[in-house]
Amino acid sequence: MLRRSQLFVPGNNERMIRKAALELRPDSVIIDLEDAVPVDEKETARKLIRELLPQLDWDGKELCVRVNDPRTPFFYADIDTVYRIDPVKCIVIPKAEFDLGFVYKATGREIEPLIETAKGLLRIEDVVRSEGVTAVSYGIADFALSVGGSLKAYEPNQVIKTFVVSAARAYGIDPIDRVYFDIKNLEGFRMDCMEAKSLGFVGKQVIHPSQVLVANDVFSPSEEEVNWARRIVEAYEKAVRDGRGAINLDGQLVDYVHYKLAKRVLEFVRQSG
Questions:
Q1: What does the alpha-carbon distance between residue 92 and residue 206 come to, in Å, rounded to a whole number?
Q2: For residue 104, what are the CA distances in angstroms to 4, 132, 251?
């Protein structure tokens, strides 16, 4: 499953939901029942997605729903709704701070927790190793609020990014980078994606259709990267057959680690068809 781009769509906006399904090309669509839906429209949104989501052709996209905070009175109604919608493959859970395996056991849906609080960050290992968790991301605005800091200070914070990537990789799940709020600054968004990719993230959560193609592009290997990966694999495997464990390729040392990195690039190409 590719998760280069995960597009948030308000759960109370039929037009935007239809557009996400039929016109846009994110790898994942996250129907949002939390921040995007006012309190007095929560039940209206649940009714809308119960009726609408099964009618649409999701064309290979991963369909997710972000439910409300488990500590709110809306959470269990959201879970009951999602359980009844067959096309939904994944439940995104905000303010994750504890073992979420009970949601997987109750619904059979994959889980993507969002680390958005100080407690959640300190307990991230317990969160990501919950049964059913296949990806993890984080919300930087909520986190800044949680610790009494400013969004401006925490947006570029690489400590949080490293925590999330490390926890995800340690337990074999996908690390997804946070949203980028300046929707008009596509160049800034591209640079943010490139940094996230260099840190080990496999994709980006996005909040505007214009960000989808950029994320898909950045988190896909370039033609140059693919060609280089093929050369590394071919040269290294020949060296191994010749009894060598490291080689010089165009003046660069290539050993087993570089070989595994190259194989990962080629595996991505295979999965993406």
A1: 14
A2: 23, 5, 50
56: buried, middle or exposed (CB in 10 Å: 19+, 13-18, 0-12)?
A: middle
What residue spans define the domains of the chain? Answer: 5-218, 223-271
Token pair in block for residue 89: 């493959």
Backbone angles phi, psi at 151, to 5 degrees: -60, -40
Angle between helices 256-271 and 223-241 (to 10 degrees): 130
Nearest to 81 by CA among 58, 54, 60: 54
Helix (H) / strand (E) element for 227: namely: helix 223-241
Count of CB atoms within 10 A of residue 179's CB? 21
What's the CA gap between 111 and 96, in Å, rounded? 11
Q: pLDDT 10s per residue in the chain (273 long)?
A: 889 999 999 999 999 999 999 999 999 999 999 999 999 999 999 999 999 999 999 999 999 999 999 999 999 999 999 999 999 999 999 999 999 999 999 999 999 999 999 999 999 999 999 999 999 999 999 999 999 999 999 999 999 999 999 999 999 999 999 999 999 999 999 999 999 999 999 999 999 999 999 999 999 987 788 888 898 888 888 888 888 878 888 888 888 878 888 887 788 777 776
For domain 5-218, say whether CATH 3.30.43.10 is its number.
no
